[in-house]
Amino acid sequence: MNNVIILAGGQGKRMKADMPKPMFKVLGEPMLEWVIKSCEDAGLSNICIVKGYMAEIIDNYIDGRYETVLQRERLGTGHAVMQAIPFMQKNIDGNTLVLCGDAPFIDEVTIKESLKLHEDENNSVTVITSMIDNPKGYGRIVRDGNSINSIVEEKDATIEQKQIHEVNSGAYWFKTADLIEYLGELTQNNSQGEYYLTDSLFIAINKGRRANAYLSENPNVVLGANDRKSLLALNDVARMEVISKHLENGVEFICTDGVIIGRDVKIGVGTEIKQGCTLLGNTIIGEDCTIGPNCLLNDTIVGNGTTLNSVQSNQAFIGNNVKIGPYVQLRPNSTIHSNVKIGDFVEIKNSTIGEGTAVAHLTYIGDSDVGKHVNFGCGCVTVNYDGKVKNRCVIGDNCFIGCNTNLIAPVRLGKGVYTGAGSTVTKDVPDFALAIERAPFKLKDGYSLRKLGDKAEK
Ligand code: UD1
Ligand code: CA
């Protein structure tokens, strides 16, 4: 079986933040997760992650999904791989893929094709490389005819070597047993005083073993984030790649300003995404919808023909031909059935809104089950929290909730119930009844004249 070691021990000092560098996000997902997913896509699941700086953050994130090993001191990429020797010894027969946790664009095809070359040529080590316009900062690939001679780090390179545009992606296939052997021979003899994993190539060649480079067709495989600027550049690359995939699938964008779409998001044909939309997680949007401007959707399912304008939604389900917005928040576990209309300044949490219901303005619905074809007036509140526990409101089909109604949960309104504007409803209401609760209306004639005195216009 083949092993994978993902290096995620680095601090990323230039990021200027207390976080392991591979945990910085590209399109809302840690770079480490991008690397893990590419391995999984390539059918590799025997993964060990080398953690170091703020290891507990990696532990919390990985949450036991994969083996991790701690690198106590950061003494270089070779030293990081050394920490995984016990992991490799469990599975010494096959090959080991070493990947950088801060280079998120390694892809399934590159992983599979480079393994093929590695096995076909019976290489001891195969380094994955890429040709890039600006190779500054990367290890340069020094070739020798058909094979490879060495990898020279920027800081150790001669002026001539700095002209080389083929660079080390930081990803390699090794014969596992050979890698363990090379790790034992690494030294700290270089300008940074580190154990360079790249030196293992030189060691292999000196032992007369075969080493070669696999030049990936994906120029982005080398891209890593060493500082905030390069992280932004990675986000831009990923962002436009996702958008172009959706364009090919028949999704409409007139302007992509501020549009960020996570790579697992699915969007149906004929849907338009307007400017300023962030669509994340496992969001799925149907066909012929209009989303935006300015929507933030996370793990939200949207049916067909639905319009969302300035909506923030997290873990909600929205049906077909629904109109929501502007300025609406849907919180987790909300289901909005088809043909519902939700207008401005409405918040819905942990509730079901039945088909054809209208919640037009300034309303809070929390922990409630609302039936079909209900009409909420302006400014209604389901009072779901008594200071200790949350309770539910149940509202039957065809109810008419007058403006500024408070429904004090737990409370149940039957079918076709009307509530008078301004009522506070504390008791269950049977089908087809009117609930009205108001203080008697008083009128004091000329009341303000005395107070206003001279200011009163007669
Ligand atoms: C490394 C390569 C370089 C290559 C580049 C690609 C070496 C010596 N150089 O350089 O040839 O072009 O990657 O991005 O390997 N890490 C640890 N522990 C450590 C040091 C690093 O876990 O002690 C991890 C980092 O978190 C990172 C990865 O290893 O994920 C690469 O380390 P980094 O310091 O970024 O290497 P580069 O100098 O970029
Ligand atoms: Ca790097």
Low-pLDDT windows of residues: none
In terms of structural class, how would the helical and strand content be classed?
A: alpha/beta
Averaged pLDDT: 96
Envelope shape: elongated
Order of adjacent strands in the largest pleated sheet: 14-17-20-23-26-29-32-35-38-40
CA-atom Rg in angstroms = 31 Å
Separation of termini? 96 Å
Give a short account of the largest sheet: 10 strands, parallel
Topology:
Layout: E1 3-8, E2 25-26, E3 29-30, H1 31-41, E4 47-51, H2 55-62, E5 67-70, H3 77-82, H4 85-89, E6 95-100, H5 108-120, E7 125-131, E8 140-144, E9 147-152, E10 166-175, H6 176-183, H7 199-206, E11 211-215, H8 228-248, E12 260-261, E13 266-267, E14 272-273, E15 278-280, E16 284-285, E17 290-291, E18 296-298, E19 301-302, E20 307-308, E21 311-314, E22 316-318, E23 323-324, E24 328-330, E25 334-336, E26 341-342, E27 346-349, E28 352-353, E29 358-359, E30 363-366, E31 368-370, E32 375-376, E33 381-383, E34 393-395, E35 400-401, E36 406-408, E37 411-413, E38 418-419, E39 424-425, E40 434-435, H9 447-452
Parallel strand pairs: 1-4, 1-6, 4-5, 7-11, 12-15, 13-16, 14-17, 15-18, 16-19, 17-20, 18-21, 19-22, 20-23, 21-24, 22-25, 23-26, 24-27, 25-28, 26-29, 27-30, 28-31, 29-32, 31-34, 32-35, 33-36, 34-37, 35-38, 36-39, 38-40
Antiparallel strand pairs: 2-3, 6-10, 7-10, 8-9
Bound molecules: uridine-diphosphate-N-acetylglucosamine (UD1) and calcium ion.
